[in-house]
Amino acid sequence: MKSTLLLVSLLITLSYGALPREKKRAFLAECEKTHQTGLDIDEILDKWLIPTSDKGKCLMECFVLKKGLIDEKANINHATATPHFEESFPNDPQSVKKAESALKKCDALDLSQLDHCTKAVEILKCFRKNAKEIGLKH
């Protein structure tokens, strides 16, 4: 009986995308260890916050790099972003396409003069703005 309940609980968790959130939390926690911002990582995730301090920007650069939205030079990386979107929106190809579209619109940004951390934050802000405009839920 316990194993059946555990299996049902796991299936419910997978179908509603809770595991990707926990993975995102783990990424952010790992980045927090590196950058030591003292920020509340759960609040950042739950409220879609983007820190503005230098350390906070680098925290987010680390986070979006781990998620696969950018490469090591803080350039958009569509090849690694798509698998992240597929994991974030399992069995929802329409949301995956919306996420890809939201990120694609950020290709037009001229971020060549920015440091990696600021560049990553600008990409994240662009993505979130576009995602919101097209009705993509995080």
Automatic annotation (TrEMBL):
From the UniProt annotation, give the residues forming the signal peptide.
Answer: 1-17
Keywords, A to Z, come to: Signal
Q: Name the InterPro entries on file.
A: PBP/GOBP (IPR006170), PBP_GOBP_sf (IPR036728)
- One Gene Ontology term of the molecular function aspect: odorant binding
Tell me, what's a Pfam family for it? PBP_GOBP
GO annotations of cellular component type: extracellular space
Q: Which GO terms describe its biological process?
A: sensory perception of smell
What protein name is recorded for this chain?
Answer: Odorant-binding protein 2
Q: What is the species of this protein?
A: Matsumurasca onukii (Tea green leafhopper)
Encoding gene (name): OBP2
